[in-house]
TrEMBL record:
It comes from the Eukaryota. PANTHER family: EXTRACELLULAR SERINE-RICH PROTEIN, SERINE-RICH PROTEIN, PUTATIVE-RELATED-RELATED. The keyword Transmembrane helix applies. Residues 137-151 have a biased composition (Low complexity). The keyword Lyase does not apply. SUPFAM superfamilies: Cupredoxins (SSF49503). This is Cupredoxin. Residues 135-164 are annotated as: Disordered. Keywords: Membrane, Transmembrane, Transmembrane helix. It comes from Russula ochroleuca. The chain crosses the membrane at residues 169-186.
Length: 187
């Protein structure tokens, strides 16, 4: 019997201006029972689930059936305790692919994936190209580029009927849902 493990993705290693270094590693494989841990270590970043076709837009904004994970902005400094977001992988979602991005670096390739299908046409390289093509600084699509210019501080509390990121539920298929335990926005 395999034992479950924590798979850590470091967020914030982007000190070179290269968005592809925001998530290290950018690609992970996780088995049922594993927990993917986004460890925010440097800068003001997010880990936000999206879809392959809309790489820099939260998944629930393009597909209402996906109640994806979203860390919101986590502003951390080197040498501080940091902040984490955990994403559990269970039997119901073990075969799902989870595309994700950082609001601040998505248009520069600040994207990643959990459990991609290597034989699919939807690859990490393609997802990164789409993020840059649709949302990069050379993009002529002003609708998509608006996601690049999100504020670097968290927005004020919303009066919207939608749940906050801290109260969102991570959907695990038709079977049910489990709450995401999200660490404090600020350390």
């Amino acid at each position: 019997m395999a034992t479950a493990e924590d798979i850590v993705i470091t967020v914030g290693g982007n000190t070179t201006g290269n968005g592809s270094t925001t998530f290290v590693p950018q690609r992970v494989a996780a088995a049922p029972g594993d927990v993917v841990v986004f460890n925010f270590t440097n800068g003001n970043h997010t880990a936000t689930q999206s879809t392959f076709s809309n790489p820099c837009i939260p998944a629930h904004e393009t597909n209402v059936t996906i109640n994806g994970f979203n860390s919101d902005f986590r502003n951390t400094q080197p040498g501080t305790s940091g902040s984490i977001l955990t994403v559990p992988i269970n039997e119901q979602n073990a075969n799902d692919t989870f595309w994700f991005f950082d609001y601040n670096t998505c248009g520069e390739g600040g994207v990643g994936v959990i459990n991609d299908n290597e034989s699919s046409n939807e690859t990490l390289a393609g997802f990164s190209r789409n993020a840059i093509r649709l949302n990069g600084t050379n993009s002529s699509n002003t609708t998509s580029t608006s996601y690049l210019t999100r504020p670097t501080t968290p927005p004020p509390p919303s009066t919207s009927p939608h749940k906050s990121a801290a109260n969102r539920v991570f959907t695990v298929g038709a079977v049910g849902a489990i709450p995401l335990f999200i660490a404090s926005l600020f350390v």
